[in-house]
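Q: My labmate handed me this sequence with no annotations at all. I'd like to see what the chain might look like in three dimensions before we decide whether it's worth expressing. Could you predict it?
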Amino acid sequence: MRMKDGPPNRSSNFASCVVGAIFVVFIVIILLILFFSLFKAKDPNIIINAVQLPNFHVSSASSATGLNPSAEESTVNFTISVYLTVKNPNRGTFNYYDSNLDLNYRGDQIGFMVLPAGRVMAQSSRFMAVTLSVQPFLVAAAVGSARNPDTVGVGVGVLPINTKLKMAGRVRVLHFFTHHVQASADCEIRIESDDGSVRSFHCNGA
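A: Here is what I predict for the chain of 206 residues:
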């Protein structure tokens, strides 16, 4: 005599479904952890490697404006070169927009330059050299420079200059996800008026 098959074990099927669901959730969690740890967008870094002044000139305000000589004001004009590196830590290319390099003296803008849009490949660096010519501007004359304290009139001592550079753009990860990122560098530069040498510079990035 042939026996009929018994009814399916519903509890066994339910347990299998629960185990399968737990496994799927576990895999999803692992994939999310890998995604956010490996492909999370990070802001690039701007490193100022060096600052140089190929040309630097100081003169009395009277020679530039034709006014009466004054020991309280001088004019300065120079050419400044900034050498920097942009590091992209992301696993996607950093495409940045047009960026401005601003040059300021005691809060007043004395020059600016537009850096054209470009890109930094994934997990790589790009070196840039930016040169900007600054038109003559007035500064308060000092009794003497740091190296020659006995000089009077034209000398302006140590000239404090501030540079600001901000780069914004986007990073595309896995060809689907786009993240907006930005980087900046704010530098305080101290220039020796005797010969236009850079006495020191200190930069903060964000």
